[in-house]
Amino acid sequence: MTEHVRIRNDGGILTLTLARPDKKNALTDAMYGKLADAIESAEHDPSVRVILIRGEGDMFTAGNDVGEFAAVAAGKSEGSRNVVRFIQSLARCSRPLVAAVQGRAVGVGTTMLLHCDLVVLAANAQLSTPFVSLALVPEAASSLLMPARIGYARAYEMFALGETVPAKSALEWGLANRVVPLDKLDAEALALAQRLARQPAGALTATKKLMRNGETLVAQMNAEGEQFGLRLRTAEAREAFTAFAERRPPDFTKVA
Q1: Of 43, 46, 54, which is closest to residue 90 (Cα–Cα)?
Q2: Is the pTM of this model over 0.90?
Q3: Residue of 55, 101, 220, 240 with fewest CB within 10 Å of its CB?
Q4: Contact, 158 vs 146, CB < 8 A?
């Protein structure tokens, strides 16, 4: 299903578009693989000076495809490593990363923004990280990056209670650089990407390297991934995904 990620390289800007709007741009293993391939390849492509990530339709992304999580929780699948490749490619990416976000950005849809250097939100954007509500733990080094960015109290509330953060608050907290009207989103994100593309690439790369240690982030991802994998196979997770499929609230009080 790699057609669900569209790739365009134009004017030094590699645009990656999540193109599964009928499924709220929920990310599948194949989509993670194509995104990872594109970002990893950009590291060796001098024509790519900036990477722009955007979503098609009325939502940035609903996060990981819940059906794939459910299959692992039910013991029907071993899961995928492409999501690991994707988030690690973000951590190691030396190119400037720009994100254009409209509507909801759920789970990895929000945590990937912590790896983007410039984030533009539409006024209708809503960020959420409901990992605990699915009996899971944070990923993409967000357990390190989110508290550092917005403080422990706010980060804990986002993780533990799955609280949704509207665009205005996200900007005030430092999760975004701009909030613009929805009809201006793509133009604003592209304008910023074009400005970055005109900057000296070597200086941008050196600056980003000084500001972020990719290997430290990957180490945190590995620690999170171990816990994530364990939690995904628990009775709590089975109840969470069964309840999701049955469209009812989960009852974790009955899970030993």
Answers
A1: 43
A2: yes
A3: 220
A4: yes
